[in-house]
Design brief:
The complex is a heterodimer of chains A (about 600) and B (about 120). With about 600 residues, chain A is α+β, with helices and mostly antiparallel strands. Chain A has 18 helices and 18 strands. In chain A, helix 3 runs antiparallel to helix 4 and helix 12 packs across helix 17. The chains are: A alpha+beta (about 600), B mainly alpha (about 120). Chains A and B meet through strand 2, helix 9 and helix 18 of A and helix 1 and helix 2 of B. Chain B: This is Cell division protein FtsL.
Amino acid sequence: MIRTPLRPLARILEARQKGENPDAIERENKRIRHEQMRDASRQRAEGRLLVLGVFFFCAFTVVGARMGVMATTDPTEPRAAAPGSVISATRADIVDRNGNLLATNFETHALYAQPHHMIDPQGAVKKLMAVFPDLNEERLLRDFTGKRKFLWIKKKISPEQMQAVHDIGEPGLLFAPRDMRLYPNGSLAAHIMGGASYGREGVHAAEVIGVAGAEKYFDDYLRDPANGNKPLELSIDMTVQAASERILYGGMKLMNAKGATSVLMDVHTGEVISAVSLPSFDPNDRPHAAVTGDASDSPLFNRSVQGVYELGSVFKIFTAAQAIDLGIATADTVIDTSGPMKVGGFRIGEFHGKNYGKQTVTGIIVHSSNRGTGRLALEIGAERQQEFLKNLGFFEPTPFEIVEASGGKPLLPQRWQELSTVTVSYGHGLSSSPMHLAAGYSAIANGGHKVTPTLRKQSGPVVGPRVMSERAAADARAMLRAVVTEGTASFAEVPGYQIGGKTGTADKPGPRGGYLEDTVIATFASMFPAHDPKYVLIVTLDEPVETSGDKPRRTAGWTAVPVAAEMVRRVAPLLGLRPTVEPDSLADITLSSSN
Amino acid sequence: MRTVLYILTTFSVIGLAFWAYRENYATQQALSDADDLRYEIREAYSRLAVLKAEWAYQNRPDRLRDLAELNFDRLNLLPLHPDQFGSIDQVSYPPLPELPLFEITDGVDVSSMEAPE
């Protein structure tokens, strides 16, 4: 680069000759040079700005384009997932307490059509009708030849049907993969399982959602992808459930009942080993809910938790246990049960107008005396009675883990006065479900601790808060045993498994208030083995009538008790209970004497 | 000196570019292998699920009960009954196997007299 000197000698000399100031030349040259420098630096700065501008433009274009691409494409899983993380897209299985499969998934396909891709819509309709005779031919033809671009034809098809549709060879008929919920045991434990259905549906996949029972209650757990290979373990024992269902079904038919339910509960954990409600249904093909008529006539009605009825005399044991717990009476306290007894203007009578005279508390339970329990309840008082029943869980729906359970809210007297105290003491005026009753009896069976019914498998005993003393529970158990050995439940004697229990026969309320003639709910609430109870079994028959005698018999002693006894005989060995000899009550001997 | 540095830098850039190119393809290959494996695992899982469902379906209590009833002549299967529980002393020990006895019929005298020394 040639730099022009600031004081070029030729011009300086020339200027000196002319007598001009040579500094002016230098200043002039400096000015020119500065202008050139300024121009150059401006150009450079402008160039840099341009480059920077282009750079930013490109960067923002890339970001914008990437955002656009991400927004318009389908999401995909990152290919390089962290090793060891097992994520399953399917709904988790449900297994029983021994790991037997109760609900699983099955891959199947749905059939859909894109009529604008069809070559021969009329022919396709004819051939489809041959494969699926239940389709509506006219409607299908209208859809295929109309303006529709997409329609579902079948939600679930079998592999054979899929092959048959394949063989039609119509490019407009397409298959969408589907996960189907499968209950391999059919109607077994149908009310517990509930059922599943499809939620949002797409061509590539569809959501499987629970619609009832445990499927709905545990929906969040079952749908969580992290639980895909961790099946949900229930407390149900499949074998026991199957045996119970069979025996209860036989019993229901034999006793001409229109419905039946049974609950078998572990008294130490509150685990429900089996819960049957008949009539039943197949959760693989769940029927539609009835819109008209009585809800309890539908097979979907779960009698064990939704069947809220007055359960009758089975409640008497709670009154007796509380009286002993409070020290009002002992098992041997004599109470006059003779009439007349009037409370709040109402006469309290006995079954068939009997009169049992003077009875011990045990005698009251054995003979099922309404007046006797009523008098005990009057001693206890309304407040303490309410408190006791509340502690046993009779005031709230059971926390049993199926959605229907929350609907089984007990019906309580609106004003709990003296009359209510007396009627509730023998099981009238308070309606509850068999599940409530099972929890209440479990508290007596396990020595006085509250039991919360649960459907989840427990790892060990669950000890709830104490609701009655050990002594009161033991005395109540002895009374329940006496009901079987000398009282109304004599049919419940099963050799080897000493059953203790209480019968209850309650008139059914009519649809317009009052009670119906000749329709009863017969209940037998029992525990076995009575000297050291492990399980509580509640059997309830809806409108049973036993017709082997001269007159039709409806009491629980003739209907529910034989069914329960047969169930214990059949189920106890399956539960691993070995028959035992009942220990005699120890003779009162003096171990040491002191003088 | 500077030229050498430039040449070395250029070569190392070429080398690194080549390495990155190969690594890229190796990674793609590994990812696609992993994808294939995952696909196989998924297929195996779904086959397993079908087999499990089939097993549960074939072993459903209704079917087993019907089979037991159909084949009662041959199997004599009845529901478990309380009197089928036994105690351990009710189980008889199998008879001890008799020890084999040999009769000595053809005795052989053994002597070391003629053994080579």
